[in-house]
Amino acid sequence: MKIKFNPDEEIVKVVQEGLKRTGGYCPCIREQNEDTKCMCKAFKEQIKDPDFEGFCHCMLYYKEK
Questions:
Q1: Mean pLDDT in the chain?
Q2: Which of 10, 12, 30, 51 is the most exposed place for a label (fewest CB within 10 A)?
Q3: What is the residue extent of each domain of the chain?
């Protein structure tokens, strides 16, 4: 398993700016709680699945098999 940033540098830049603005919470989700703190609970659960390959909700991270 390998987790890396999205290869699109513009998306990474925009999401990281959003993270700064929200204090580290996913900028794509309105609700701010421990489940939406980057790296969010939803993506952590996705990466536990050995068959999952893809982006997190906000497209910042990509998990390879």
A1: 96
A2: 51
A3: 2-64
Distance between CA 12 and CA 6 in Å, rounded? 6
Amino acid identity of residue 7, one-letter, is P
Q: Spell out, as residue ranges, where the chain has pLDDT lower than 50.
A: none
Count the Cβ atoms, other than its own, within 10 Å of residue 48.
Answer: 9
State percent of the chain over pLDDT 90: 95
Q: Reduce the secondary structure of the chain to three states and give it as a string.
A: CEEEECCCHHHHHHHHHHHHHHCCECCCCCCCCHHHECCCHHHHHHHHCCCCCEECCCCCEEEEC
* Other CB atoms within 10 Å distance of the CB of residue 16: 14
pLDDT at 48: 95
